[in-house]
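Table S2 (text version). Query chain:
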Amino acid sequence: MVAIQSDSYQGADAPVGVFDSGIGGLSVLKYIRACLPCEQLLYFADSGYAPYGGRSESEIVARSLAIAEFLMQYRMKALVVACNTATAAAIKALRERYPALPVVGVEPGLKPAAALSKSGTVGVLATERTLASAKFNLLREQISAATNVRFLLQACKGLADQVEKGELHSAATATLLQRYVAPLLEQGADTLVLGCTHYPFVRPLIEEIVGRATSRPVTIVDTGEPVARQLARLLANRRLLRPEGNGTVQGFTTGSETALSSAFSKLLDLHPPVVKVDAST
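Corresponding structure-token output:
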């Protein structure tokens, strides 16, 4: 596969590609639409391969490159990797494959969490793959050394699956979250990082658990808004902001069209066209 160079596809009217292993990246898409209301957005849910958290790094890199190649058919001007696991595993490979393309990843909000914490203890909720990645652990070590903040790492096995199934308020999801969140609070965490783009959709349940477990104020950090701001900066610097017109959204999925359409409707009150894509892209 050959990288397409900038002069062949970039222009202010070109779309921005956004992808995730499933519907979690819609939490980032929400902020992008609010920050950049004129942009044309392509959202790719790789639900046929979800979740990424339990897959090998090589599999995630291969999926990410295949999705980027698919979205390049639409001559996109930027790519947002709206998945913490894919960012940790594949963003370097994406930037090497498409050196002229602005690529924005999702970083767990360790730095803002460290700045917000008064107890010096921060809990991080994320997938096993994110927590095991060299990229994440280098970032954690750097911030710990600079701030003396202690990061408590909690792998949330099965939580992204619950969000994918639409179980945002179910007893099973609440039980999972109780198991993952309570130990962090017991160890003194006063700040919780949502280290997977699926997790903001269960934030109300997390807040309920926090409210029952402690009277101390606990701050929850979601990194979708900084991603949108970074995308806006990159597009502005390259004079690629779409200056006017109504923004649009187009959905693609390797899973169920109905499931993605339902997620758009329930989570964002949007009703864009959704196209089923062959899982091999």
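Notes on Table S2: The chain has eleven helices and ten strands. Residues 1-8 have pLDDT under 50 and may be disordered.
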